[in-house]
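Anyone? Bumping this.
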Amino acid sequence: MFSSLASLQPRQLAAQVLNFALVLSTAFMLWKGLSVFTNSSSPIVVVLSGSMEPAFERGDLLFLWNRGMDTQVGEIVVYNVRGKDIPIVHRVVRRFGGGSAPLQLLTKGDNNAADDTELYARGQDYLERSKDVVGSVVGYVPFVGYVTILLSEYPWLKTAMLGFMALTVVLQRE
Amino acid sequence: MHNALNRLQTTFGFFTTCAFTLASIIALLSIVPLPAPVGSPSASVSVRNVQVVKGRPHYYATKREEFDLEADLSSLFTWNTKQLFVYVTANYPTSKDGQGGISEAVIWDTIIPATSTPYSWQNLKQKYFPDKKKSKSKSRRESLSKKSTDLVKPGFIALKNQKPKYQITDPTGIISERANATLHVSWNVQPWVGALIWDKGYLGSRVGQWDAGKVGKSETFSFPPLKGSKPEVVKEKAPQTPKVGSASPVVEI
């Protein structure tokens, strides 16, 4: 099994490593470039809960855009609860401010009966557009993100997949 | 070179490419939009009585305001529409001098799903493997709901004296006697794949420009003074100190 690896010259091995590193860094650059273009820290997110059904189901992929600072009521935003690192995708139901005052938003999931006041941090009644919101949803692709949910909920899947990929790389004769 | 694993890989890669291309074409055509929509959406909304009462921030009382809403949004239901989210907002200036921008709050919303295609999983299953063990009441209820989505073209809304779903408050705590308030109707198209479209954005003006004159904006009204705050009431009961945090007026509209 390892004879194929051993037969590689050091130069070829180095070239392979370089190729691999190039692929990784290109992917990273694309991701960060998209972050800069959309001005959002996480421009593509996967829906985790069913609080926006039937619009978004678990596993849907959402594309975010964070350059529209004048968020309107009815837009769907992804925000982080202050103090926690949980992003939530909900729809804006109220807005106050704008103009010279900072824009404040209240959100609610379509499938929830009550708005998100209980989800916010203690003492926080509204979201600040400039601070708490990660981005506003502009596009969506169904189902595609379900793989990431599976990977995060069943960690043994991650090791199994990595092991499988490593096995195929080693066993392939190329 | 052509072992089973390679073939599987190639097939899967080809499938992914095809699916991705198809999704991009669908998303692009919905924005162009092609085929061009027949008709354009129209809506009219008007306010009935408005009441402002005192209450805790999340106090739910039984009496509410009413509004009328008539809308024809059927032109927004294309082959790529999964559902339509319609919402009515109350807009009023944030501060009395108009410096702070406009505050908006949703008072009512609804989700109108598109009619399910006869080839959807549920409908196919129903056609070929009908559930015979259903109780009578359940089948009647299901057949009734099926009828309502098949016969009625989605997108027509006619409401009279509709009570709002949500009671709105203002973060300053005072919503009484605010002038220049209006009700607006807005919509948001949720596609099967692609960009979400709102009536206020650029894509909304391409896909569904409001009919002239029927933009879905009500006449201007003012929030009345606080209910029960008439100055003629002289007699006071035993002085009641309000509980902490319970004195912010709630718009009971």
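Late reply, but here is one note on the structure posted above: Residues 58-63, 134-151, 229-240 of chain B have pLDDT under 50 and may be disordered.
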